[in-house]
Specification:
- By secondary structure, this protein is α/β, with parallel strands linked by helices.
- The protein folds into two domains: about 5-80 and about 245-250, Nucleotidyltransferase, domain 5; about 95-240, ATPase, nucleotide binding domain (Nucleotidyltransferase, domain 5), CATH 3.30.420.
- Helix content is about 35%, strand content about 25%.
- It has helices spanning about 35-50, 80-90, 130-140, 150-155, 165-180, 185-200, 220-230, 245-250; strands at about 5-10, 15-20, 25-30, 60-65, 75, 100, 105-110, 120-125, 210-215, 235-240.
- It has a five-stranded mixed sheet, with helices on both faces. A five-stranded mixed sheet has the order 8-7-6-9-10, with helices on both faces.
- The radius of gyration is 19 Å and the shape is globular.
- The two termini are about 15 Å apart.
- It binds adenosine-5'-diphosphate.
- The site of adenosine-5'-diphosphate has 20 residues, from helix 3.
- Adenosine-5'-diphosphate (ADP) binds near residues 135 and 218.
């Protein structure tokens, strides 16, 4: 058997996808930490073992993400915008025209033509507001994991607004809301609305007739998806495992 390996070395998580042709056979992730090459290797071996395979079954390896050059055993380093475009376009049934990837430390908006070629890129990597890191900071302040944010937000009863556009000021704003007794669920809903406004400001509304596809780890948060759809007044599509599209795209670039 010949499987290809797609590695996405992200700022927050290392994702691995094992493929045969265009089919995903296995996927797994581990938090990013020092020694990324060996973490990627251990995760790849775990996947191979679970599939009953060994390193002899590996055809080629592609790496992407901001740590893509750290992996000596990868034959190909793929730009992460290209990997995202290729992976999501394929998984969307070749229908996606606009992608928003919210990662641990940046937000990327990628537009595609009907062949899946990248026609436009907008990126916010200067500021943590609107990124996964922002969600994690608020999670720490509220002492609640990000995986609970969907349920919390859906239970909100009062509408409040987070006005700060910078993480440092947003942190003080949230601390003072907590001191005033504002409920966690109302703060979390306001957080989603604030991130949605930030992402929406990267698009012109007229661009989004075909809806947009959200990927990256925060796309697992359904309340964020709803907030974004409301803010942009368009459909927001999310795949079943939205954090693996980039690793999958890297593997497809080997075909
Ligand atoms: P990167 O590729 O930059 O490492 P990811 O696409 O892996 O980033 O996304 C990481 C982010 O995903 C984390 O910062 C975290 O906030 C978010 N995340 C992870 N799991 C969940 C979840 N279950 N619900 C909401 N957000 C999540």
């Amino acid at each position: 058997m010949s499987v290809n390996v797609g590695l996405d070395l992200g700022s927050t998580a290392i994702k691995v996808v094992l493929t045969e042709g265009r089919k995903i056979l296995w996927h797994g992730q581990t938090p990013t930490a020092p020694g990324q090459e060996s973490l990627a290797q251990i995760l790849t071996r775990k996947g191979l073992t679970e599939l009953g395979l060994t390193s002899r079954d590996v055809g080629q390896v592609a790496s992407t993400g901001y740590g893509r050059r750290l992996v000596g055993f990868a034959e190909k380093a793929v730009d992460e915008i290209l990997a995202n475009a290729v992976g999501l376009f394929e998984l969307s049934g070749r229908t996606a025209r606009h992608i928003v990837n919210i990662g641990g430390q940046d937000v990327k908006c990628i537009s595609l033509d009907e062949q899946g070629r990248v026609t436009d890129i907008k990126m916010n990597d200067k500021c943590a507001a609107g990124t996964g890191r922002f969600f994690e900071l608020v999670a720490r302040l509220l002492d609640t994991p990000v995986s609970d944010f969907t349920d919390l937000s859906q239970a909100a009863t009062e509408s409040i607004t987070l006005n700060s556009t910078c993480v440092v000021f947003a942190e003080s704003e949230i601390v003072s809301l907590m001191a005033k007794g504002t409920k966690k669920m109302d703060i979390v809903k306001a957080l989603h609305e604030s991130v949605a406004r930030r992402v929406a400001s990267m698009f012109k509304y007229s661009e989004l007739n075909e809806g947009l596809w959200l990927d990256g780890g925060p796309a697992m948060n359904k309340a964020l998806v709803t907030a974004l759809a409301d803010e942009l007044m368009t459909e927001v599509f999310v795949l079943d495992k939205p954090q693996y599209t980039v690793a999958y795209g890297a593997a497809l670039c080997l075909n």
